[in-house]
Amino acid sequence: MYANKFGTITAARDAADFSSVKDREQGSQAHVSTDESHSQPDDSATESSPDSGPSREALIDEIQRLDDGDNLVPYASEMDSDGAYKAYDCLQEFGSWDEALEAAGIDKRARLLEELRRVRDELKRMPKTTDMDHHGRVSASMYANFFGSWTKATSLIDAREEPTCETTTSDPSPRTGDESNSSPVLNVDKDSILTWEDIPGNSRLPSPIAVQVKEKKRTRSNRVEGRYLVADLNDKEFELKVWQKHELDIEWDVDTWYVLSEARGTVWESDGEVHRLLDSTRDLTAMEYGVRSPMDES
């Protein structure tokens, strides 16, 4: 029945907007207090009282856990069926499922456009809605829901532009002291080096950031490879979290300076105070500078 109406099961699921999740969860929780307590997973950094529900950080961690590559982006229905919490918890905290994805550092817009380009490159022409339904990882209805219309989505990519390429052939970015004992030469403009104040909310940093590892912190989740207290060029201390799934081969030594590229920022507010931290990505590179700040180069 769903295939007859929507064309494919994928299209039927994509057509089910988060508003349906909201209505369903509100109905199912009509006799349950919205501040019913939930157990918090390990490695939660945001303060939460026992009866205030899952913390923002706990929800973000769980959404990132669900982002395992099986789907283009995690679905709200996955949180209900496979998550430690409910999609309704995310609605209460973030306002919508798309806003929850954004808070978890999942760039849905970029992934949708990347998938659209992939199908375009496969077909060697701009796909139609039926092409996306049969060749894409998500249906055309998700594009219409997110961008406003299928036409709007396709207008954001050029049918004649060069096919996307995953590999990068420049800037091999040395990792950890394999070349010599001397500090590497800073190959970026010093004025472009970011600090804590420049960390963007839930997206990759637009340019490198210099940090010094101050302390290795205890991890409380097997999904996190390491947690580190770091400081920027202004001695502002904050957390760097390295995720196991990114399989990074970087040694993080205390008192050592690193210039990080392709890190992801997370920003949230608690009790009127802004918090920022860095998360690893699969593309993260770290150029080691030893105990001297990169800005001290002559």
Task: Please estimate the helix content.
Answer: 25-40%
**Tally of DSSP β-strands:** 8
Characterize the largest beta sheet: strand count, sense, and whether it forms a barrel.
Answer: 8 strands, mixed
Broad structural category: alpha+beta
CATH class of the largest domain: Mainly Beta
Overall geometric form: globular
Query: Mean of the pLDDT scores?
Result: 78
Number of helices: 11
Which blocks of ≥5 consecutive residues have pLDDT under 50? 24-50, 159-181
Return the domain count. 3
In short:
The protein starts with a helix and ends in an 8-residue tail after the last strand.
Could you characterize the architecture of this molecule?
- This protein folds into three domains: 2-103, no CATH class; 108-155; 190-296, Nucleic acid-binding proteins (OB fold (Dihydrolipoamide Acetyltransferase, E2P), Beta Barrel).
- The chain is built from eleven helices and eight strands.
- It has helices at residues 2-6, 9-15, 18-28, 56-66, 76-82, 87-94, 97-103, 108-123, 129-135, 140-147, 150-155, and strands at residues 203-204, 209-217, 224-231, 237-243, 257-261, 264-270, 273-279, 285-290.
- Helix 2 (9-15) packs parallel to helix 10 (140-147).
- The model is unreliable at 24-50 and 159-181 (pLDDT under 50).
Give the helix/strand layout.
Elements: H1 2-6, H2 9-15, H3 18-28, H4 56-66, H5 76-82, H6 87-94, H7 97-103, H8 108-123, H9 129-135, H10 140-147, H11 150-155, E1 203-204, E2 209-217, E3 224-231, E4 237-243, E5 257-261, E6 264-270, E7 273-279, E8 285-290
Parallel strand pairs: 4-7
Antiparallel strand pairs: 1-6, 2-3, 2-5, 3-4, 5-8, 6-7
